Amino acid sequence: VAPTTPICEVPSSAMTGTVVQMNCKETEGSPPSEYQWYKNGVALLEKTGTGSARAANITYTMNKKSGTLLFNTVTKNDTGEYFCEASNGIGLSQKCSVKRMQV
């Protein structure tokens, strides 16, 4: 079963230095969907280990299985427009509407 449009939870604003978690979920897809977050239209990298992620100054953890995007400490650089995409290899992937977070 192809995924339906996911529900995205993105806070509209956050204080610098706080922990922010964004959630993305859709329940119709079978097999279960994997989730990809985007910021300003660019796919966010999944943080794997330390090397390249640290070099790229990545401040978040993205879990493709659960659809969570977790910022340990948000900075002004994290301000932007976020959306996520659900895909399970069947039918078209589905995106939620873009939501802006202001830090």
TrEMBL record:
Keywords: Cell junction, Cell membrane, Disulfide bond, Immunoglobulin domain, Membrane, Signal, Tight junction, Transmembrane, Transmembrane helix. One of its GO terms (cellular component) is plasma membrane. Residues 3-103 form the Ig-like domain. It comes from the Eukaryota. Signal peptide: none annotated. It is found in: Cell junction, Tight junction; Cell membrane. Its main location: other. It is a single-pass type I membrane protein. Gene3D superfamilies: Immunoglobulins (2.60.40.10). GO terms for biological process: leukocyte cell-cell adhesion. Belongs to the immunoglobulin superfamily. This is JAM2 protein. The lineage of its organism: Eukaryota, Metazoa, Chordata, Craniata, Vertebrata. The gene is Jam2.
